[in-house]
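User: Continuing from earlier, I have the next pair ready.

Assistant: Great, send them over.

User: Here they are, in order.

Assistant: Folding the first of the pair now:
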Amino acid sequence: MKFSSRSKINKVKISIAFGGFVVMTISLFAAFVAVSNWFNEHEVIFQRVIEVKTQSPIRIEKREMMSPIVVYKTVEEMVQDSPDVKRAKRIVELWGGKNAAKALAVAKAESGFDCNRFNVNSNNTVDLSIFQVNSLWMKNYPLEEIANCDRNIEIAYEIWDRADGVVGNGEGDFTPWVAYQNEGYLEVMR
């Protein structure tokens, strides 16, 4: 009997030892994978603790190109450069202050400040006059008004004023104009 109980104890010890070996092997493998992954992402660099070197007191390096400074025209310059000073002054009067230069530039970029300019679009609508007001606005304004240069300016102001979602606040938005969306108006302001 003693022999069989001793045999059972030895089997248990062997099972425990084998289980410990398996656990230790899996742990070592997991540690190896973790260390390997860390070294895939990191590099150990040995540096000199102290480095003495001689160098010239002046060094010349090529500079990175900075973007050029853009100087925009003043509203007064834009009005004087306009082929139609009377209408340019009307635009400044309507838009006033901070939006006048942008409005002048949008009109110039859209039509070249040409009251007779029209453009047929790919969707079969037509852009008319100085601000190139689209014929889709005929639901709000008669064609004669859209085509009339002075009224076209006023209609453009009304479109601009409501484009920010609030009518009458004088804080409109130029996004209805392609020349604003593609920033073509900026070239006119230079």
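And the other member of the pair:
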Amino acid sequence: MAGEPLWRISRGDLDRLMTTLEVRDVKLSGCTLASTGELAVARENAATIHYCLEGQGSLIVDDRAPIPMGAHTLVIVPRQRPQKVLGSAKAFVPQRTSERLAETAFTPGSPRLRQVGDGEPVLTLVYGHFEASFGASLDLFASLDTPVIETFDAHDQLGPVTGYAMAGLAAGEVGGRPMSQALLKLVLLALLRRARVSSNPWVERFAVLTDPPIARAFAEMVSRPSLPHTVETLAHAAGLSRSAFIARFGSAFGEAPISVLRRLRMRNAAALLEANVRSIDQVALLAGYQSRSSFTRTFRRVYGTDPSKYRAGVRRMAAETQAGMHEPVSPAEQAVAPVGVWDIERGNVPRTLNGAADLRSG
């Protein structure tokens, strides 16, 4: 069938990847628009989600042709993109929208339902910003270049889920933020599940999801980072030759396999240190390092401090949080922002696909 994705991830590999999905920094708002209503959404260094609960309207991104918004339409917009929601489904081509939106854009996160335009509402939606990654290190939407568009139906129950997520944030009660993150994760899991059946263009953009052998190797790395992975063992797991595996992995991620594995291991180590249950030697082993000194050198290179000092910083921050001095933010979040799967497209990650240092060990 014309337009069908050339590759599809296997059910088992997708399931393993989905178990590692993490969602954070959720800011949601609700809005109703009259037929004359226009809502500009502020740019953010995070993806934006729009979910239409009912009615008809349109979404304009980057001064391009409007995206029709009907009931159960889900749209994920790349980070730092000008966007406007219209309470009208008419074909409308804006002129230099990005300049006009700069001063009037609305930032999601308000606890009240926003009403835009005069007259009866014709469109009701939930929208907002969020971060999502596999294994807390590889940003799922960091290098997305065009919007993801998928239409669900009432049976999928995404409307109530997004509504509950927004209500949890708006209530401001204890547990509201983690509850909203968990609920939005359900929405993204429903979207990822569509990677197995959707014929929409967004499926092809997620190379890791549409190249089953590479997805299989990546799932192995994410789910079991402590194993003694090498390029050879990962290539074997993918069922590819070493050279083919390196080339296809680099095409999907913009990085060498062991470079990605190293970051996964360091994020896993940071989480273990924050949990403050295991010794440094145990953390090193669980991160895939037989030598504490090797682990410490790599950790210091990534986070700028030794594992022991990192753990001490976590304890100090926990004490300050208990004293009400600030919101809890992990040292990992302070030190290293998640690197996008395809950041190479933006020139942020060196393409070292055959460097000896990258291919020896994590």
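Worth noting for the second one:
Residues 269 and 282 are 10 Å apart (CA to CA). The first helix runs from residue 11 to 18.
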